[in-house]
Design a protein that fits this description.
It is a single chain. The chain is of the alpha+beta class and 447 residues long. The chain contains 7 helices and 25 strands. Strands 7, 8, 9, 11, 12, 13, 15 and 16 form an 8-stranded antiparallel β-sheet that branches. The chain has a 6-stranded mixed β-sheet with strand order 2-3-1-4-5-6, sandwiched between helices. A 6-stranded antiparallel beta barrel has the order 17-23-20-19-24-25. It is globular. The relative contact order is 0.11.
């Protein structure tokens, strides 16, 4: 079978997207409007929102309460945690992450947008592009979110004026494009009134583009997995050792990227041993081809020593392994990350010991400047690090694979997640990387 064969991944379409924006720009109201107007709200949910709104002295239902589920969120009228919502229309299914707008919750946006295929960035039409808008655009660019929607909200408060929308759209598009965001769509809306959210606005006949929901339903999210290198992290080794299957040995897991085919010559990393795919099993059915993100069981022709955390990949596209990792990270823990700190690094299904050798810089998201040699990173900081691992890892560049180019740093003492990491360069149009500073003294470690 040809390695360029197009794979039919099925007709069911799922879009993961996240919302972001400054405080009071109307993110939760937009999400509530989407859910309400697309008839994705249960009657008892709407009744609960109506009761809560009346209790706050509001005459009409506050649709933001459909996503602000924490008591503190309802009391303060702000979003604190990432709120996930699931809904569907006849054209597509959606997983939505409503992320906070406060600066101190930047890490929450990283969490919500890390798996998103689209980010909706809201801007108040009265305030235009502000510091937090640029911060969220930068995070979307760092996370390689392929589609960004600029939703210019509260157009009703600027008399639905086209010049106000055009100026904001031009400024944001120019900034986001400079970061390497591949696709930007600007839509003028009023989440409170419902203009251009689900139904076209009668007040903005000068706008001929899609509504927010129309764009969400039609934006392309599927790519041909044949174009990506095959990556299969082993999650579990199946050895029944029964009378029926005395010699069966299968490797189960989820394909992270690309395609696997029976007959493919594969390499197992980090050992470097090679074999051939003898059989593939998907949901108890033998198949000739499997692709990301299917969960499969792989059988090889050779009896190799393979365990959880090993990576099976077609030999022709096998990644290089290394113990030295340079990456951009977002620090999510309250305790700081420091040079010389001993951590665990989790990459796909593999977890290894590691040492933070250097923190060359911290990124200032306001103007994208680099603060050199900060010594440590604190909560919500984004910076560059150099890590030395105890065992070789097969990381792809995050620019090439968001799944196999990402990792977590974990505190070995209590299992707390410290940082989310992205291997390789930062922004899509990043210039030459700054040379890392001198590494920390790690002579006492054995790796």
């Amino acid at each position: 079978m040809s390695n360029t064969t197009t794979v039919d991944t099925g007709a069911t379409s799922l879009l993961r997207f996240a919302t972001a924006g400054s405080v009071d720009d109307g993110k939760s109201t937009l999400v509530g409007r989407l859910l309400h107007d697309s008839k994705s709200v249960l009657t008892d949910q709407l009744e609960a929102v109506e009761r809560a709104s009346l209790g706050r002295g509001q005459e009409t239902p506050d649709l933001a309460l459909l996503t602000d589920g924490l008591r503190a969120e309802r009391e303060q009228g702000i979003t604190i945690d990432v709120a996930y919502r699931y809904f569907a229309t006849p054209r597509r299914r959606f997983i939505l992450a409503d992320t906070p707008g406060h600066v101190q919750y930047t890490r929450n946006m990283v969490t919500g947008a890390s798996t998103a295929e689209l980010a909706v960035v809201l801007v108040d039409a009265r305030n235009g592009v502000v510091e937090q808008t640029r911060r969220h655009a930068a995070v979307a660019a760092l996370l390689r979110v392929p589609h960004v929607v600029l939703a210019v909200n509260k157009m009703d408060l600027v008399d639905y004026a086209e010049p106000a929308f055009a100026a904001i759209a031009e400024e944001f598009t120019s900034y986001a494009a400079s970061l390497g965001v591949p696709e930007i769509t600007a839509i003028p809306i009023s989440a409170l009134a419902g203009d251009n959210v689900v139904t076209p606005s009668a007040h903005m006949d000068w706008y001929g583009g899609p509504t927010v929901l129309e764009h969400l339903e039609t934006v392309p999210v599927h790519t041909d997995p044949s174009h990506d290198p095959g990556r299969f992290p082993v999650q579990y080794v199946i050895r029944p050792q029964t009378a029926t299957h005395p010699d069966y040995r299968g490797y189960a897991g989820q394909i992270a990227s690309g395609v696997l085919r029976v007959g493919d010559r594969v390499t197992v990393l980090p050992s470097g041993r090679t074999s051939t795919i003898e059989a593939l099993d998907v949901l108890g059915r033998a198949v000739d081809t499997a692709w990301a993100p299917q969960s499969v069981t792989v059988q090889l022709t050779d009896d190799l020593d393979i365990s959880r955390g090993d990576l099976i990949t077609p030999t022709a596209s096998a990644p290089a392994t290394s113990q030295d990792i340079e990456a951009t990270i977002c620090h999510v823990a309250d305790r700081p990350l420091k040079v010389g700190q001993r951590v665990l690094l989790k990459h796909t299904t593999r977890t290894v010991k590691a040492l933070v050798k250097d923190i060359p810089s911290r990124l200032t998201l306001d103007d994208l400047s680099q603060h050199p040699a900060p010594g440590e990173l604190t909560a919500n900081d984004i910076g560059r690090i150099v890590v030395r691992t105890a065992e070789p890892l097969a990381l792809d560049a995050y620019a090439h694979s968001r799944r196999t180019g990402s990792f977590l740093l974990i505190d070995p003492s209590d299992g707390t997640t410290l940082t989310a990491g992205m291997a390789g360069t930062a922004f899509a149009d990043a210039a030459a990387e700054t040379a890392p500073a001198a590494a920390a003294d790690d002579e006492s470690w054995d790796f």
